[in-house]
Structure formats: C-alpha cells, structure tokens
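Sample 1 of the test manifest.
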Amino acid sequence: MKTIATLMATAAVAVTAAAPALAETWDMPLAYSATNFHSENAAKFGECVTSGTGGAIEIVTHPSGSLFKGADIKRAVQTGQVNIGERLLSGHQNENALFGFDSVPFLATSFEASGKLYEAAKPKIEEVLAEQNLTLLYAVPWPPQGLYFRDEVKTVDDMKGIKFRSYNNATSRLAELTGMLPVTIEAAEISQAFATGVADSMISSGATGYDRKVWESLNYFYEVDAWLPRNYVMVNTDSWNGLDEATQTVFRDCAATAEAEGLEASIAYTNFTLDGLREGGMTVEKASDAMVNGLKAVGETMTAEWLEASGDDGAAIVDAFKGMQ
Ligand code: PCA
C-alpha cells in the first residue's frame, strides 16, 4: 500500500513533468535596432523556438546593442555570459581573415552569388566557430553595399579626406585606399555620428540608411553592389550540447525558416529602402563608370590582401565558389 508520502512524491513528479519546470530564458543580444529586418527576423526566430519548445526555452532578443555592444556579442556567447546572439560575421575579420570572405569587393555582388559564396565558405566558417565553442545556426545577407556621402562625389579622387564610418576591417581598408579617414561606429550609433559630423560617409545597404534615417544628414547614395555581408546567429556550444535532441530539432527548424525568410526580407528590402531614401530626399543613383572603375582598382588590392591573409583556406573558398558558377 502506498504511503501518503509516496503518493505526494509521485504527484510532484507528475507536476514537474507536465509543466516546463526547467523553463529557461535565453537572452539574445543583437547589434542592430529593433526595426531592422535582421532584428525583426531574430525576434520571429525567438518566438518560433519559444513556442516550439512549449516555453521550455524562452528566447528574449535585446536589439540595438542594449545588452552587449556589437563588438562584444561574440565573446559574450563564447564565454557563456549569454547562450545565443547575432552579429555581423565580417566583424570578426580582425581575428581571422576567413570571417571576411563575404566582404571581398566585387567577389559576389548579387543575392544569388552571395548565396553560393556562403555555401562555399560555410563548412570552414563552422569549423572555425566550433573551435571557439560556437555553433552556427543561421545567416542572412544584408542587401548590396553602396556608398553614402553628405556631398556629391563623382570619382574616387573626390573621396580624399572625407570622414568615413566603417563597420569592419574591409570597410576601414576601403577608406584608407580611397584616401578617406575611417572611424568605426556601430550602426545603432550612426544617426548621431552623421548629425554631429563625426562622419560624412559610409558604405552600407539601403536598409541600414533607411532604418537609421540617414537622409537627415546625408544626401547621396551611389549603388555600387560591392558585396553582401552577412549577419549570423550563434549558440554557445556547451549550451547547445545541453539541449536534448528534440529541442535541437526545434532550433534547427526555426533557424531554417529564419534563414529563408530573412533572405526574402533582404531581397524585398533592397528596392523598398532605396525608394525610402529617395522619399527622404536623397539622390539615389548607380555609381558612375568612373567611380566604379576607381573602386574596382581598390577592390583588386583588397582581394589580393585578403587572399594573402586567409591563405589556403581562403583560396579554397574562392575556388569552390568559382566552381559553382
Ligand atoms: N548594414 C550594416 C552592415 C552592412 C549593412 O548593410 C552596417 O552598416 O553596420
């Protein structure tokens, strides 16, 4: 005959099993503002995991670098200060040139090419991340990168001496090679930087200019389609290994959806945001042949430098990508 105590213990176990007693909150730092399409996509991804796990894991996104600044997000995930986060992949180019595969000028200039380049690079990038206790979940490209200026610019020669906001090593190098003066500033802070004259130009997507309302300070956007950098979502590998298989499957499925929907949003945003810049009063046009030719020369130098810095692994990525054409 069961004692009261046994009955009570059994009931307690039943309650524990039914409710998500092990419910955990996973804080997810994001570098970009809540209104940015990557952040909106990450929020949807978070809801997908939260509902898919029946609330056992609740993902809470923290946009605009509010929990960790962009430059600190990877370290925070690596060291387990948070379980998950999103960051611009090429932001880590200073650690390892391979992370900059998607910011090599004019290597992949369309969504289609950028998808192939990512496919070519992904195994190596996953390996490098794994060595750093990080598991890659999904990655989404930004729209093609063009040049923003306060004043009209016709050629690369006109760029000399202009203060330029950079977001990774490649953008700083582009500034140096065109005679501009780079200063690294997170997207979340650019509106202020332009308003106060800390910078008068940048390379970025229409999406970021639109999201940050840069028409309040800048007047020209030249479509260059120099490259399409990616944001990626990473999980701390110890945290990942602590998840049971069913939970990992929920994460993987939500990640696949986020990757597909994020890409769609990025494609849709390309023209939508360029129109938005025009509505804001900016001149938006294709870069002139003279400007493109000057940038291509700079791009060749940068490509050679990247190949040298990334060694055999970088060359293998480029070869694999070219083999897909
Ligand atoms: N926006 C990000 C990176 C690339 C882009 O289009 C930024 O400007 O920080």
